[in-house]
Design a protein that fits this description.
Length: 1449
């Protein structure tokens, strides 16, 4: 609702004020015209009295009149008949339109904020900016309005409309409030005969009032007060003459009927700056008097005749318009009251007070008494109306009716002397002088009379003023009768067809209801006043009703927004475009962001249309932008229309602003999804060549994969820098996205493209056509080039200026690629890859994209000439910035407290000097292998740059998968080309004698097969020159575990120039290998019970190795059987010596699901061989099972042996590190014992099973070769070639305190194998028991130390066997001589004890009844007899049977 400066009481009082007419002589008009004013305008700023006035009512009670205002206007007589229904004239309507149009919100005014729940509404001049969703910081402009209980928004255009509407209301016969009460007759003191001029003016006023020729103006009472004013020009007039004339006037009219007013006191020499008081009044009331209707303006000439100027015709209208135009020019120019001083202001103010207090108020008081006396005398009952009853005013003379007048309630006319009109006249007089109690009584009485006569127009007026009088009485005298107002409005509108009076009544009642916080009733009243006859009135009423909804205790926001939209629609129909735009923008505050997408689209579309009509294409483009960028549910046809409207508006914006490349909203760019690639895109496969996968924009980013590549690169960098990773190491980044580290500037290379992938999204249901799509960039040369450019006067290089001027771009700095056509389907998300090619070093910054946007072609329309004619396609050139927000900072305390984001520099690369560029190709690289299969492939390295490269290395996640060979270890013959490698064996093969069975040993060093790290130097011969390429063989071995394996290679190379910013470059390659089952090899080792023979190796004997080979291949690759062609071993301590298979089947074939078992004897390696050098020396022993021998110590067999051994060793180390650890207090005795025992059983023998398989593919026989590895770590353990499956980790209980590790106790089975014992004797012994009853047989006990530490041994011959099977065989047998021995054996030492067994009778005896106990000597200390109980009984051999015969028989 409108927020007025005045209170509601003051507003109602000022709506009905005493009317005073002015008639001036020509000379008086000339004096006032010096100030660019007429006399009525001169008085307007001073018409509000600052002091109180007094008068007495008919009961002689003193009445105080406060804050009284009078209205002084120039008399403009008119003979035109009144309009039907007292409607406003077209001129008055035009005037109201103009005053509303001219009253717009002031720019920069403070806004009023209304908070309702989660809504924040703003009502100010910047409503367009504050409410529109594109104004992101509109909340910052809001201020809390806390001055009153209810928030209000100022609508000054409504106040101006209301004020001008009330002033321009035509006078009516049913009321007297806007009838003239007095007339000021103004004559200049410079007149020749001032008194005669007064007489003429008095006669003129009398003629206008009583002649009946004029319908306007209307006068309150027949005896109108005439007040004579002598106007004196101080600067030019004769003051004495003026005083003399004034004295004469006082004699004629009395001192209270005339006044001498002196003006124009300012002389030319004075320079007094006085504020212009008249501009405000003239702007608000200038046309109110001129547009009352067709009028006849009269003037009095010197001869006293009256001339009439017609104004109803065209000429009069033009003259009136010309006068209004000149007056408007004067108002605009200002300078009113230029000849007046502050003293003149005081004189004018004093004159108005004198006229009001000494002339007007006494005149009103006199007429109130006269009317009261007349009414009372006619009734004859009482002298006062205060004691009158209903009967006094119940009757009266019936109203006169015209004979030809139909009997309708709207046509009743009372004669001027009718008592009912006298009551109404008295009520109006009381109301004008603020005697509201008496006025209410009179209105109430007149209302009844009018209703009884069915004079509905008069009754409605009485009801209206009775309600207003009741409200203005104040206090608790009587409540405001709102039903009076409702009845009056309904009567005015429906019965009397007088919309003007109904509107006045609604305006007054709405203000009164608003002051009583009855906003719902006020809104309903205002909405009722909307109609189709006046769009302006309906718009203003709807807007005020909307403000009522927002001011209610429970704010009705959606009703507010809905009625604001209705008001905006009516404003638009009334031609008030700016007000319509404001209403729509204020309604948007409620609808935006609330899923009212269709409502938002309608509002934005209307805002765009209105803004464009008002000459604001920028704001129109912003409004249309919201329709296009937000997710809309409009149909495709509607969206197409929106798009065409937007492009047309945007083209207008561009033409007006002169900006060649403005920001375009379509299509949407997902800035965070922007990806950048540095370098040439990889070449695809050429024939049989397969290019390295490397990195491309077609690959999805994987954080785990990125971490894996970074780890491999760290290994390569460490290998290139002597095992140390530099502190400033940064992983190579040739591919950047939102998940990579973009805090630092990436590095690009001269003459290598920078590819930017931009993600476009079309939010519309219509296709978009983009053309000439390219990147916008800025380039700054490096330090040296920048200094040279500065000397040459060059500045920052950018292609934006070139694009804006549409000139041809020079490619000396960067070459920009342009996509000519780029189409986006409806609601499609599509990526565009844009490229720039730098030619110089420096800093590149990619700022955005530039393109031409075109709308979809509209529907074809028929044409008379060509049949069908397509509308011209609108194309707009523009750009969009690539704005990428960096990651959220969370390092410091300030970062955690505030929302801060780091930089994202993926689009700001630094261009470095040329670097080497290598491409890698693979030939005959398989995709499927059998487990353990050996396949030879080829890899080609090409230097495609102009710079040589060196330091080529490679690292892989599966280093055991490949090898480049070892020339020093004997590389097999390599075919000249991959095509000649068919049916060539991958192994180095030698002819061998079939069926030999003996092993061929070879001693090699582990250093000959490369370093122990996973980084492999590629043997390219040092430096690869520009344009050169080299092709190397690459041996591959199938993984040991079946399934699909992802194997990653990372190739590393450097530039010979170490000063480059890029220290190295890498090439990635990922390959998937499908591994199928082949063979399963299980091996176990057992200690041999046979003692060393005389002359053989006395270092501890031999070990039996059993190998089980099973064919587990289930694929349909055509592999039917496998041939085991050779079994080799590689170890530092043991080696296979011979095959002891009883079958002697050298060609071992294993068909599907078959199994074969092989047995080999292993012997310790020669001690001299293990101690030749400090380097790790390995003994390779080859036991061939066919007619050829494969050299296992050569490439590739030896390479894969060492690689698989290193991998399995690392896995065992990880398993040991994840197990229990001994506390830092030191090793316990149990751990030392375990270590010693493990040393005793340690074997560390690696078995290599080499196989072949024959496959027929495409009528060609292929030979598949492979090798499987089994690592035997200790005697008694089993090992397999299959990779162990990872068991799922079981859920364990959470322990807050870790348990101490259990004590290390070696198992008894390991301690029982420290000593190997054997009995040597004659198995059959003949003795003559007849000659000698005791038979003594010599027996030799051989003791061998199997471990690598000293062992204390106790031999007890008195031990009895516990085996029941051989207990009978051991009877009648005893050992004689020394039966208990204590001795110590050194590592690998053998001792012989000579024993004697005594037999008493012939038979079969088991002499293995002795007990051998042993314990290792820890730290070189031997055990004494007290610690003998810690010795462990050793595992003995089988029964030792001896046959004793009697030779005497």
């Amino acid at each position: 609702m409108a927020q007025c400066v005045q209170s509601v009481q003051e507003f109602v009082q000022d709506s009905f004020v005493p009317m005073v007419a002015v008639l001036c002589s020509d000379e008086a008009e000339r004096l006032t015209s010096k100030n660019k004013l007429n006399f009525a305008e001169l008085l307007r700023p001073f018409c509000r009295l600052t002091s109180e006035g007094h008068l007495r009512d008919p009961n002689n009670q003193l009445l105080v009149v406060k804050n009284l205002r009078i209205c002084v206007t120039k008399v403009v007589p008119s003979t035109a008949p009144p309009l039907l229904g007292a409607a406003l004239s077209p001129g008055q309507r035009h005037h109201l339109d103009q005053v509303v149009l001219s009253c717009q919100p002031q720019e920069g005014a403070v806004s009023t904020a209304v908070a309702a729940g989660d809504y924040d509404l703003s009502f100010n001049d910047e409503a367009l900016k504050c409410s529109a969703p594109w104004f992101s910081s509109w909340k910052d402009a809001l201020t809390e309005a806390c001055a009153s209980k209810h928030f209000s928004a100022s609508t000054p255009w409504f106040e101006v409309y209301r004020e001008n509407f009330l002033q321009s209301m035509p006078a009516s016969d049913h009321e007297f409030l806007n009838h003239y009460l007095a007339c000021l007759l103004v004559v200049s003191s410079g007149e020749a005969a001032p008194v005669e001029q007064f007489v003429k003016l008095s006669q003129e006023q009398h003629r206008i009032q009583h002649s009946g020729d004029f319908t306007k103006p209307k006068w309150f009472i027949p005896n109108t007060l005439k007040y004579y004013v002598l106007l004196h020009d101080v600067g030019q007039g004769d003051e004495r003459r003026a005083e003399a004339v004034y004295e004469d006037m006082k004699q004629r009219y009395g001192p209270q009927g005339c006044y001498l007013l002196k003006i124009n006191s300012l002389v030319a020499e004075q320079e007094e700056q006085i504020h212009d008081l008249w501009t405000h009044y003239l702007r608000s009331q200038d046309q109110a008097d001129d547009n009352v209707g067709p009028a006849v303006s009269s003037s009095v000439d010197k001869s006293g005749s009256t001339t009439q100027e017609p104004s109803a015709d065209t000429g009069g209208r033009l003259e009136q318009d010309s006068a209004s135009a000149s007056r408007e020019a004067d108002i605009t120019a200002g300078g009113h009251g230029a000849c007046l001083t502050l003293s003149d202001h005081d004189r004018i103010r004093q004159f108005v007070q004198e006229f009001t207090f000494r002339g007007l108020l006494p005149h009103i008081e006199k007429n109130i008494r006269q009317l009261n006396d007349q009414l009372v005398s006619r009734k004859g009952l009482s002298r006062s109306l205060f004691t009158a009853t209903k009967k006094w005013f119940g009757g009266g003379k019936a109203p006169e009716k015209s004979v030809s007048e139909p009997k309708s309630t709207g046509g009743l006319l009372y004669p001027p002397e009718a008592p009912e009109l006298q009551i109404r006249k008295m009520a109006d007089l009381c109301f004008l002088v603020q005697h509201y109690e008496l006025a209410y009584s009179c209105y109430h009485t007149a209302k009844k009379d009018f209703l009884s006569d069915q004079a509905m127009l008069y009754a409605a007026g009485a009801l209206e003023m009775a309600a207003v009088s009741a409200f203005l009485q104040g206090g608790a005298v009587r409540p405001y009768p709102a039903h009076y107002m409702d009845t009056a409005i309904q009567t005015y509108r429906d019965v009397c067809r007088n919309v003007v009076l109904a509107e006045r009544c609604a305006l007054l009642s709405a203000e009164i209801l608003k002051s009583q916080a009855k906003y719902s009733e006020a809104a309903a009243l205002l909405i009722k006043m909307t109609s189709e006859d006046s769009d302006l009135r309906s718009a203003l009423m709807l807007e005020q009703a909307a403000h009522c909804f927002i001011n209610m205790r429970t704010r009705m926001l959606r009703k507010f927004a809905f009625h604001m939209i209705l008001a905006g629609h009516r404003f638009s129909k009334a031609g008030q475009k700016r007000h319509a735009l404001r209403c729509y923008c204020q309604a948007m505050q409620v609808y935006k962001g609330r899923s009212w997408s269709l409502a938002e689209d309608h509002i934005n579309f209307t805002v765009g249309r209105q803004s464009f009509t008002l000459g604001r294409p920028e704001k129109a483009a912003q409004a249309f932008k919201q329709i296009l960028t937000n997710d809309s549910r409009q149909t495709a046809a509607q969206q197409g229309a929106f798009l065409r409207e937007y492009l047309y508006v945007y083209k207008t914006v561009i033409s007006r602003s002169g900006v060649r490349l403005p920001q375009l909203p379509l299509p949407c760019i997902h800035g965070a999804a922007t990806r950048v690639y540095f370098g040439h895109e990889r070449r695809l496969a050429e024939g049989e060549k397969q290019a390295a996968t490397h990195v491309s924009l077609d690959q999805e980013y994987d954080a785990e994969q990125a971490a894996m590549w970074c780890k491999l690169e760290e290994q390569l960098v460490a290998a290139a820098n002597r095992g140390v990773v530099p502190a400033n190491f940064q992983p190579s980044q040739c591919y950047l996205n939102s998940q990579t580290d973009n805090l630092r500037h990436p590095l690009a290379v001269v003459e290598e493209p920078v590819v930017v992938e931009v993600v476009f999204r079309n939010p519309l249901k219509v296709p978009l056509a983009l053309s000439r799509l390219s990147l916008v960039w800025k380039f700054t040369r490096d330090t040296h080039a920048a200094a040279a450019a500065e000397d040459a006067g060059e500045e920052l290089v950018s292609n934006q200026d070139t694009l804006e001027q549409e000139s041809r771009q020079t490619d000396d700095v960067l070459t920009t690629e342009t996509i000519l056509d780029f189409h986006l389907a409806p609601e499609e998300t599509k990526m565009a890859r844009l490229r720039v090619l730098p030619h110089r070093t420096g800093c590149l910054s990619i700022t955005g994209v530039v393109y031409d946007l075109a709308a979809a072609s509209p529907a074809e329309t028929p044409d008379d000439d060509d049949g069908l004619l397509k509308a011209e396609t609108i194309i707009v050139s523009g750009k969009q910035d690539l704005k990428i927000r960096g990651p959220r900072l969370n390092h410091t305390k300030e970062d955690k407290m505030f929302v801060r984001y780091g930089p994202d520099r993926r689009l700001e690369p630094i261009v470095t000097p040329p670097m080497p560029l290598m491409e890698v190709f693979f030939l005959q690289f398989p995709t499927a292998l059998l487990c353990g299969e050996i396949r030879k492939a080829y890899v080609e390295f090409c230097n495609v740059s102009g710079v040589s490269l060196c330091g080529l290395r490679v690292a892989s996640t599966h280093p055991e998968f490949f090898t480049f060979g070892n020339p020093s270890a004997g590389t097999p013959l390599t075919p000249l080309s991959p095509a000649s490698a068919e049916n060539f064996s991958a192994y180095k093969t030698l002819a061998a004698a079939p069926g030999s069975g003996a092993a061929c040993e070879t001693l090699v060093s582990a250093d000959d097969f490369g370093p122990t790290s996973d980084v492999v130097d590629v043997p390219v011969g040092g430096t690869l020159e520009p344009g050169h390429s080299v092709q190397l063989p690459l041996w591959l071995r199938g993984p040991d575990q079946e399934g699909v394996h992802e194997i990653n290679f990372l190739f590393y190379y450097e530039s010979p120039d170490k000063r480059s910013k890029i220290s190295h470059r890498v090439v990635r390659h990922s390959v998937f290998i499908c591994a199928s089952r082949s063979l399963s090899v299980q091996a176990s080792a057992h200690a041999s019970a046979i003692p060393p023979q005389q002359g053989q190796d006395q270092d501890g004997g031999s070990t039996l190795v059993f190998i089980d080979v099973e064919n587990i291949n289930t694929s349909d690759a055509g592999v039917r059987e496998f041939h085991i062609v050779q079994v080799s071993s590689g170890s530092q301590h043991w080696s296979l010596s011979k095959c002891i298979n009883p079958a002697k089947d050298k060609d071992c074939k294993v068909s599907s699901k078959e199994r074969a078992k092989l047995c080999f004897r292993a012997a310790p390696c020669k001690a001299r061989r293990a101690s030749l050098d400090r380097a790790e020396m390995f003994t390779f022993a080859d036991v061939n099972l066919s007619d050829e021998r494969i050299v296992s110590s050569a490439t590739p067999c030896g390479d894969f042996f060492f690689r698989c051994r290193r991998t399995s060793k690392a896995c065992r180390a990880d398993a040991c590190s994840s197990g229990s650890r001994t506390p830092s207090g030191g090793r316990s005795l149990g751990e030392d014992l375990v270590r010693v025992v493990n040393e005793c059983d340690r074997l560390d023998l690696n078995i290599i099973v080499i196989w072949k398989a024959y496959v027929v593919e495409d009528s060609k026989q292929l030979i598949l070769e492979g090798q499987l590895h089994v690592a035997l770590q200790a005697v008694g353990e089993e090992a397999t070639s299959l990779a162990p499956k990872q068991d799922t980790q079981e859920m364990v209980l959470l322990k807050f305190k870790s348990d101490p590790p259990p004590p290390a106790v070696p198992p008894s089975t390991q301690l029982s194998r420290l000593i190997k014992s054997n009995l040597r004797y004659s198995e059959t012994y003949a003795h003559d028991f007849a000659h000698d009853s005791v038979c003594v047989v010599p027996v030799c006990l051989v003791l061998s130390n199997c471990c690598r530490t000293d062992v204390d041994i106790t031999v007890d011959l008195r031990h009895k066997t516990t085996s029941s099977e051989w207990s009978e065989c051991a009877c009648s047998f005893t050992w004689v001589g020394q039966t208990r021995y204590r001795l110590a054996l050194c590592p690998r030492q053998t001792r012989h004890l000579e024993l004697q067994a005594c037999f008493l009778m012939p038979g079969v005896y088991n002499i293995n009844t002795h007990a051998v106990c042993a314990a290792p000597c820890l730290d070189g200390h031997h055990r004494d007899d007290a610690n003998a109980q810690t010795e462990v009984a050793q595992h003995g051999a089988g029964p030792a049977l001896i046959v004793i015969t009697d030779s005497s028989q």
